[in-house]
Automatic annotation (TrEMBL):
InterPro entries: DUF4304. It holds the Pfam family DUF4304. This is DUF4304 domain-containing protein. It comes from the Bacteria. It comes from Cyclobacterium qasimii.
């Protein structure tokens, strides 16, 4: 199976397993970008595939409730902003694994479906995301505002 076919399989597992979970948690959007509006801000989640390997990251970030204006003056509305637009973000699994964590869907497994396993692992790491979004959203937003003023 080539890399393109493997990517299609992980994307399908994410659609079947992870996205329904995201919907239950209040997220809107479609692959690869999702948003959850709160009164204090927006929780962002983006799936990003490697260009060179059978791996992906799940990046999360916080955003002010109105969206952002980049340091070069581009306004990105609350309905269009993504985790990639934010300077301060976390790759899901990085805190648990103490490394820049990538989900590797190129591994072979005889006993389990690696695609379903990784889609489920994202859910299993959910507490890491919720803790990160809650721990200091205002500080994270302040860091972004500081970056945009320079």
């Amino acid at each position: 199976m080539d890399r393109k076919e493997k990517r299609q399989k992980i994307d399908q597992a994410i659609r079947d397993i992870t996205i329904p979970f995201l919907r239950e948690k209040g997220f809107k959007g479609s692959l690869p970008h999702f948003r959850r509006q709160n009164k204090d801000g927006i929780n962002l989640l983006t799936f990003q595939h490697s260009l060179y390997d059978t791996k992906l990251v799940v990046e999360i970030a916080n955003c002010p409730p109105e969206g952002i204006t980049t340091h070069w003056g581009k306004e990105i509305s609350k309905n269009k902003v993504t985790a990639h637009d934010m300077g301060h973000r976390l790759r899901l699994g990085s805190e648990k694994h103490d490394t820049d964590y990538w989900f590797d869907y190129g591994k072979k497994s005889i006993l389990t479906d690696v695609y379903k396993k990784l889609a489920t692992e994202i859910i299993e790491l959910w507490d890491e995301a919720e803790t990160w979004w809650k721990k200091d959203p205002f500080e994270q937003k302040q860091e972004i505002k500081t970056l945009h003023k320079n």
